[in-house]
Specification:
This protein is mostly helical and 73 residues long. 71% of the residues lie in helices and 0% in strands. The chain has 3 helices and no strands.
Amino acid sequence: MAHPWLHVAFFMDVVGLFLLGIGLFSSQWVCFLVVLAMSFSQIQKHGAWAVFLDSLITVIIYVFAILNSYHLI
């Protein structure tokens, strides 16, 4: 491992993929499918702005799925 904190990032990725897989079996599966497609699109390789934009869109989609699931919006 190149960096001592790399195992923490790997753990967070595994937990994120696990939650994404669970979300695909929910009623908001389309939102989670969009996040999954974005993660495989490799847009993050274009720089820090692309990573920020991908993260922002992912958080917005997750918040929308949670709020819509519990009929808060």
